[in-house]
Write a structure and sequence with these properties.
The protein has 209 residues and is of the alpha+beta class. The chain has two domains: 140 residues, no CATH class; 66 residues, Alpha-Beta Plaits (2-Layer Sandwich), CATH 3.30.70.100. It contains four helices and eight strands, in the order βαββαββαββαβ. Strands 1, 2, 3, 4, 5, 6, 7 and 8 form an eight-stranded antiparallel β-sheet that branches.
Length: 209
């Protein structure tokens, strides 16, 4: 079983009266680094280890983007030039102080906040700027990696996707260049995943991580 962590900006707050009273620039305004709807994905598989790069290039869906980027594909520089976590610079240090421990826990497959959240894989938290805090949803995503021989076209992918998503516990299937990711809401035995793929005919699952 592998794990990713999805981070979503749920809201931004602004307290102009506090900025007026305490900030060097009394009209600093809302946080410029994040927008409501920004989505980031932290990976730790193969060569990817986003945590140790403070989330550089983890942005998958800027709030201004109409649709989420392809899994595993970073958003082009022009679409995220001013967004923390984009290709230009990593996450804001004030936000990173608040979210890093939850991201690390999720990447290890641990319980992010048992007993406080309804789902222990989720945490709602905010950055430490008291005049313009940003509120984040942090969500652990569980998945297995399948290495499948025989995939040659989109019809192959559609057939395999239909077979896998028909299994109880499978929520999504994502095809990467070298492997296939099967996202799970509960553990699904490797044998069941292998049988679903190979039952489509002409395909061989050589490895599952």
């Amino acid at each position: 079983m592998q794990h990713k962590v999805k981070v979503t900006v749920l809201d931004k707050k602004l307290y102009p009266e506090l900025q007026e009273q305490y900030c060097a620039d009394p009209r600093s305004g809302p946080c410029p680094c994040y927008q409501v709807g920004d989505t980031f994905v932290f990976e730790r598989y193969g060569a990817a280890d986003d945590f140790w790069h403070i989330g550089l290039n983890t942005l998958r869906q800027p709030a201004s983007s109409p649709a989420e980027g392809t899994p595993g594909t970073a958003v082009p520089a022009g679409a995220a030039a001013r967004t923390a976590g984009g290709p230009a610079f990593p996450h804001c240090s004030e936000a990173w102080d608040a979210i890093a421990r939850y991201i690390y826990t999720g990447l290890q497959g641990g319980s992010i906040m048992r007993g406080w959240m309804r789902d222990e894989r989720v945490m709602i938290t905010c950055c430490s700027d008291g005049t313009r805090p940003v509120i984040f949803k942090i969500q652990r995503q569980d998945y297995k990696v399948l290495y499948v021989d025989g995939i040659g076209c989109d019809k192959c992918r559609a057939k395999i996707q239909a077979a896998l998503t028909a299994l109880e516990g499978v929520t999504e299937v994502s095809f990467r260049e070298d492997f296939t990711e099967v996202f799970l809401e509960q553990d699904v035995p490797d044998d069941a995943l292998k049988a679903a793929v190979e039952g489509c005919g002409g395909y061989s699952v050589t490895r599952i991580d």
